[in-house]
Design a protein that fits this description.
- By secondary structure, the chain is an alpha+beta fold.
- It has one domain.
- About 25% of the residues lie in helices and about 15% in strands.
- The chain contains four helices and nine strands.
- The chain has helices at about 1-15, 55-105, 140-145, 290-295, and strands at about 20-25, 30, 165-170, 175-180, 185, 215-220, 230, 255-260, 265-270.
- The protein has a five-stranded mixed β-sheet with strand order 7-5-6-8-9, covered by helices on one side.
């Protein structure tokens, strides 16, 4: 009788605390969970499952593979965005070039040297679309003093977002935290008083016929080691007894550069070979020669009887 009473008390206790009586003879009980699974209680195992070490390592490996596949795509997308911004900047700069021409009776903006080469000493001639040395200037004063500034007062349009060139002080040391103020140069075939007796140029826009405006380049994305002044020297075919680069185009856009043209268009040119600056007037041969010839076809060609100049290297 006493044992029956004790059993009834245990059964009542299990019911009140959501436990079910499993074995009346031992009076053991366990909690009831949804789906009939049991947890807790002596001698029982948890119904929840976790990752084993192997499963965890496999998951991490899969995530690593996915990340390695996604990161190059993200980098490519960012570069495409920067290249698009570069072309937009060139388009705005070329529009300022056209507005200057319209305001000056079809006269093209002067594109003169503002310092001597290779000493980099000032020439004293400040009559140019842009002044200064892109590798050493801190600030935008040379751009503000340039002839195109009144037509677009945004210094940002003179830069390529992908240009990682550094600014150097007078001792050749990198100036930390300072970005180049300019990435573009103007074609040496445009209104240059310094070279007019050696290399033919155009002084008026309506005179640009050979090559036609759609193929005559105005501004070019310039190599960060090559750029200094705002004049981009391209030796026309036949200028020298051998093929030479003057200034060097950039290749920062997937081994290519952006150029603007006299009809207002902007285009991307993919180069056959990477571009590496060594010196002004460096020789060109082999697979790189088609890149130079392509650019030579976009400047004013030599005319009349021309004797090649002697260039030492």
């Amino acid at each position: 009788m006493g044992s029956e009473r004790r059993l009834m008390r245990v059964e009542k206790h299990c019911q009140n605390s959501s436990w079910s009586l499993q074995k009346p003879e031992s009076a053991s009980c366990s909690p009831v969970v949804s789906g009939g699974a049991r947890t807790g209680g002596p001698g029982t195992h948890s119904g929840r499952s976790g990752f084993s070490l192997i499963e965890l390592l496999v998951t991490i490996a899969i995530i690593a593979v996915l990340v390695s596949m996604i990161l190059p795509s993200l980098a490519l997308a960012k570069e495409k965005a920067r290249a698009t911004k570069c072309r937009n900047n060139l388009r705005q700069l070329t529009l300022a070039w056209e507005m200057y021409t319209n305001d000056n009776d079809d006269t093209l903006p002067p594109n003169n040297f503002v310092f001597h080469w290779p000493s980099l000493s000032p020439t004293g001639d400040l009559n140019s679309w842009c002044q200064g040395n892109a590798q050493t200037e801190i600030g935008n004063q040379s751009i503000i003093n340039g002839l195109l500034w009144p037509y677009n007062r945004s210094a940002g349009i003179y830069q390529c977002p992908s240009d990682r060139g550094r600014v150097f002080d007078s001792g050749g040391n990198v100036v930390s935290g300072v970005r180049r103020n300019r990435s573009f140069n103007m074609s040496g075939s445009i209104h240059c008083d310094v070279t007019r007796n050696d290399i033919p140029d155009y002084r008026r826009k309506m005179a640009i016929l050979n090559p036609p405006p759609s193929r005559f380049f105005v501004f070019i994305d310039t190599d960060e080691d090559s750029i200094r002044g705002s004049h981009f020297m391209t030796f026309p075919k036949g200028f020298a007894p051998r093929d030479l680069w003057g200034d060097l185009p950039a290749d920062r856009h997937s081994q290519g550069a952006n150029l603007s043209f006299a009809d207002g268009s902007v285009d991307y040119w993919k180069w056959r070979t990477p571009k590496k600056w060594r010196q002004f007037g460096q020789s060109v041969s082999g697979e790189e020669l088609p890149d130079l010839i392509r650019l030579q076809k976009s400047v004013r060609p030599l005319t009349g009887n021309w004797r090649p100049v002697q260039v030492s290297q």
